[in-house]
Amino acid sequence: MSIETAVQTLQLGPKGPVVPALGVGTWSWGDSLFWSYGKDYGTEQVQAAFQASLDAGIQLFDTAEVYGLGKSEELLGRFLQTTDRPVAVATKYLPLPWRLGTAAVADALTASLKRLQLPTVALYQVHWPFDFFMGQQTLMQALAAEVKQGRALAVGVSNYSAQQMQQAHDYLAQWDIPLAVNQVQYSLLHRQIETNGVLELARQLGVTILAYSPLAQGLLTGKYSRDTYQPPKGARRLDPRFSRQGLVRIELVLKTLQEIGRRHQRSPAQVALNWLITQGNVLPIPGAKTGEQASQNAGALGWSMTPDEWQQLSQVSQSWLG
């Protein structure tokens, strides 16, 4: 592959908005089921994360109607009223079994726009590739209609396989609407899209990869290690990757991140995010629950690791390709 070391902005698909090559995932904003919103942190902290992101030049915020059962969208909508800086909002539609016909998509977007206090979103995505009774063609037709009406600037999908992504792309093309993104899990510890055809096809189609969990839910930050073992709070406590044995398995990856970070005066998290950004067609959207976390994430921009360093990280994380 060719490494594009100068890429600091990305266009979302062939015709979508141009944004900095790093965004913010807001799953943890308002979510108390998986995350600990309302216990360890709250509105004040996530608003600080919003402001710190803007201060660092970050513009893309990714949310969804199901995050905190609408709370994430509501918080983001409230924060948007406090700034006149450019912000690109991406949200998602969940194709539940009882949502039938194109009107269901329109109604869901209407509700999201109300919570966000916006007339339009930069990106509207399908959260999961569920078919149920609507079918992909009807779903893509509904999404295309929202672009035609100006309520969404671009259309994306999330968690789609290569075959599903190709199908969505072909259906949207019938209405002359490009598929802008496929949002998938992608990090040094989750590299399946490199071997299952998703990354290759995305490049062929001009589809941008939005990488969620780019820090493997905190494993790549260096916060968790065998020597100072302390399990995370919330649902992650049950994840075997956060066990002492799981942390032993990633020691070489963390050590390599630290070594490269020392050369560039960057943290392990900033190096892990830069590994994704350096590829050129990938936009990571790490979560940020505090202003400090948001500022730390933003340090992934403004520099590039060398091709040799990129290859070194790719080599030590090969176990996570499949």
From TrEMBL:
SUPFAM superfamilies: NAD(P)-linked oxidoreductase (SSF51430). GO terms for cellular component: cytoplasm. Pfam families: Aldo_ket_red (PF00248). InterPro entries: AKR, Aldo-Keto_reductase, NAD(P)_OxRdtase_dom_sf, NADP_OxRdtase_dom. Residues 22-316 form the NADP-dependent oxidoreductase domain. It comes from the Bacteria. Keywords: Oxidoreductase. Coiled coil: none annotated. The keyword Oxidoreductase applies. The keyword Magnesium does not apply. GO terms for molecular function: oxidoreductase activity. This is Aldo-keto reductase. It comes from Halomicronema hongdechloris C2206. The lineage of its organism: Bacteria, Bacillati, Cyanobacteriota, Cyanophyceae, Nodosilineales.
